TrEMBL record:
Protein name from the UniProt record: Uncharacterized protein
Top-level division of the source organism's lineage: Bacteria
Amino acid sequence: MAMYYYRKAAAVFIIIMALMLPLFLEKEEETAVINLEQVIAASAHLSQIKAESSADPEVEEISLAEAENKIMEILRSESAELAAEKSYSSILIDQSIYQGGKNITRELAARIDENYR
């Protein structure tokens, strides 16, 4: 009869541990922050796009708006991939009101230069 109570206690213990285990294995996500001007200055590829842009639409170089769109498209795609790899909950670009988060400006600039050579 005593073995019956041990089996019940063991079953309850296993159920409790199975329910609590996900709480301990959950990976903490953090917010990342990017400074737009610094990432453009640190990345050779983005600096080249910015240098090729022209405010004068008659010049055959790409327009300023097209350059800005191209830079933001690259930043969005690369930061999304980086967020997935490093488990960032979100990546904020040039949010001066946000305090905290991990600054990944240099890491993102290096990644862009590596992928867009």
